[in-house]
Structure formats: structure tokens, C-alpha cells
Design goal:
317 residues; Rossmann fold; 2 domains; four-stranded mixed beta sheet; binds S-adenosylmethionine
Length: 317
Amino acid sequence: MLMPMTEPDRSLRDEVLAGLAARPRRLHCKLFYDLEGSRLFEEICAQPEYYLTRSEIDILTRHGDDIAGALGENVTLVELGSGSSTKTRLLLDALDAPAAYVPVDISAEFLDESAASLRAAYPRLRIVPVAADFTAAMPAVDELDVPAERVVTFFSGSSIGNFEPSAASELMAAAAEIGGADGRLLIAADLRKEGHVLEAAYDDAAGITAAFNLNILARLNRDLAADFDVDGFHHRAVWNADASRIEMHIVSRRPQRVRLGDAALDFGEGEVIVSEHCYKYTVDGFAEMGRSVGLDREALWLDADGRYSLHLFRQAP
Ligand SMILES: C[S@@+](CC[C@H](N)C(=O)[O-])C[C@H]1O[C@@H](n2cnc3c(N)ncnc32)[C@H](O)[C@@H]1O
């Protein structure tokens, strides 16, 4: 039985149709994260080509004490796009008596699963999950019944790279504001490197990233009454050196018509939907991006291979 459309469904449909009407066609990368997408992302993190997770773990493991010292004691840690919070456990373990942990994620069911597992592992830590789209509004800590004296916003996984540079700097400013004048922003940025390494990271041999990318189409079929033939499209990851980004594409294998509700969309053979941009930075370029929105970088940590970076920013006085 077809369920009637709710207001959120309608605004999602309008957003999706506007993206698919643009040239090149675009889908917002937040659409990846239904329950299946969140689980596939966890599998991506375990692929040998996906160095990003291992590099971040390396930083949090080798520099955990130094990072904890820079953040101070009794912090309330707010994490944007927390996913499974697996790497965050390393940070929580290193921190000196953290006061609370606020994981924020758009993937509500997966967030519930992650929060339940964290509560079991950290029974004495106050954990306040927030299911929300942080691009619509940042969480307000003073409304969450958590200590708000020393708030650190953590933005891991190099997710900042998924935003166009101007939107990324605005997001950094908004994230840094969560903690007010004494707050800090701890943020991971993946670094520029050889194109073949990057393309392999986003197109693993086991096909998990391909399944993750194409899962968007299955999600649109389910949530927006679309009829994409998922096998009629394929995944592609391309390094665009001039723009310093990996581009994830969904490519139509043949001419085809797709229905989305009462709209009809015609795809030519080889036509592309851009599903994600992943910008890669230099350490100086990333600090400059923070400076452009009034953030001073207080500290920087790199993994042993210099492939990945973790930055600590605060609002300039
Ligand atoms: C690339 S994953 C990173 C997960 C985790 N931070 C890590 O490093 O493994 C991005 C995460 O952000 C969440 N996310 C994406 N867009 C979001 C949005 N607009 N608002 C809230 N969460 C979002 C996804 O559900 C997913 O858990």
C-alpha cells in the first residue's frame, strides 16, 4: 500500500528533483545515510584502500594524550556526523573526565544503535544523542542539559571535505560557535595526495563504495516512490586535480526514463549524477580556510605517513 507523503517527504522530493534537474545532475551526499548507507559506510572504513579511517585512528592513538591535554578536563564533546562513534572512543578514552558526549547524526536509527552501544561501554558518561541535520541548524548545548562551560565540537572522518569550500568555511564557523567564545573545534581534513591513491580509496576492489553510492537510488525508490533500475547505473570515482577533489558519480549505463513520483527524468547513456565531492586540502590551506572565518588554529596533528590531518581551532579573540 502506498503511504501518503508527509511534509518532510515533500521537501526532500523537491530538493531531490531540483538537484536532478540541474546540470550536471546532483544529489546531496547526506542522502547516502539511511540505515543501509550507514552500515555500508562502516564497511568502507574497513577496506584496505580506505586509508582515511586508519590514518585518523593513528592520530588519535599516537597523539591522544597531547590532544586531551589541549582540550582540557571536563569537556562536553559534541560530534557532528558521529556515525558509529568508533574512533570517538579513542578520544573519550584519552580525555580527562569528559563531562558529556553529544553525538549528532542525520541517520536516526543508526544513531540510536550507536548510542546504545556507547552507553553500555561508558555507563558513567552522560550521552545525549541528537538526530538532526546540522546543515539546517547546529545543536544548542544550553538546551540539552549538558555542562556548557567547556564545549569541544568534533568533526571527524574528513566530512568537511564533502562541502564546497565556501560552504565548508561557513560550516566551520557555525561549528566553532556551538561552544561559544571558550569553545574549540577539533576537525579532521584529508590531505592532497597522488590521484591513484585517492581514486582507489573511493573505488575499493570489493565494490563496497560502489554499493554505498548506488544505495542512494534504492533509497529514492523506497522513500520517494522512484523507479530507478539500480543495475542500470554504475559507480565512478574521479580525481579532479584542478579542483582538488574526488568526485563520486552515478553513471547511467544506457538511455532510460526514470519516474520519481509524478515526474519523469530522461537519462542518456553515460549521463552522470554527481553524488559527492570530497575536497582534499593542504595543512596550510585548511588553516587559511579557518582564518577566513575568524578561527585561529591552536594545534595540528598528522598521522605517521602525513596523509591526514587533525586541527584544533578556536574563535579569534
Ligand atoms: C563520512 S561519515 C563519517 C562518520 C564518522 N564521523 C567517522 O568519521 O567515521 C558522515 C556521517 O555524517 C552523517 N551526516 C551526513 N550529513 C549529515 C548532516 N547534514 N547532518 C547530520 N549528520 C550528517 C552521516 O549519517 C554519517 O554518519
